Amino acid sequence: MSRILVIDDDDLVRRTVETMLRMAGHHVELAVDGVDGLRQFRQQSFDLVIADIFMPNKEGLETIRELRRITQQTPIITMTGSFPGPHRSGDLGNIDYLRMAQVFGATRTLSKPFSHRELLALVDECLGGGKSGSQE
Questions:
Q1: pTM of the predicted model, to two decimals?
Q2: Do 101 and 71 meet the contact criterion of CB atoms below 8 Å apart?
Q3: How many other CB atoms are there within 10 angstroms of residue 62's CB atom?
Q4: Which domain, by its residues, includes 76?
Q5: Helix or strand (DSSP H, E) at 7
Q6: CATH number assigned to the domain comprising residue 78
Q7: Which pLDDT tens digit goes with each residue over 20-48?
Q8: Strands 94-95 and 87-88
Q9: Among 74, 95, 78, 77, which residue's Cα sits nearest to residue 86?
């Protein structure tokens, strides 16, 4: 059984991902933002972290960067639904937040909405073919 930390400020997303992962046999801990997630990560051992990009207090890119300062080994899946591809953001030009997450250290990325199968396939890949079912 893998230990997975899910960091997302949206309660519905957090609980849905938790249910999908628990159904596949994983132990899941939940965090409401990057501050909470980093605190839990420092206190416990996790096999995988799944983090949203856009959150209050400490957003996902900063959270990924700090997780990578702590360890290079733990895989990180980053997800977002707000900006799934390049978008115009003021004078910043086109920003692909999922691509930026990989530059900051995310192992894989996932665009919301996603299916049960998509999530579990990425989890399985990041855990090296470990425990996850193909239920949907």
A1: 0.86
A2: no
A3: 16
A4: 3-126
A5: strand 3-7
A6: 3.40.50.2300
A7: 999 999 999 999 999 999 999 999 999 99
A8: antiparallel
A9: 95
Q: Quick one: residue 132, left, alpha or beta (phi over 0 = left, psi -120 to 50 = alpha)?
A: beta
Beta-strand relationship, 3-7 and 48-52: parallel
Burial of residue 103 (number of CB atoms within 10 Å: 0-12, 13-18, 19+): exposed
Is 133 inside a domain boundary?
A: no
Q: How many residues does the chain have?
A: 136
**DSSP-based three-state secondary structure for 29:** strand
Residue 99: inside a domain, yes or no? yes
Is the residue at 132 inside a domain?
no
Q: DSSP class of residue 86?
A: -
- Which stretches of the chain score pLDDT less than 70? 82-94, 130-136
Predicted local confidence at residue 1, as pLDDT:
84
Task: Answer yes or no: is 15 within a domain.
Answer: yes
Q: How many domains are there within the chain? A: 1
- Distance (Å, whole) CA 47 – CA 127: 7
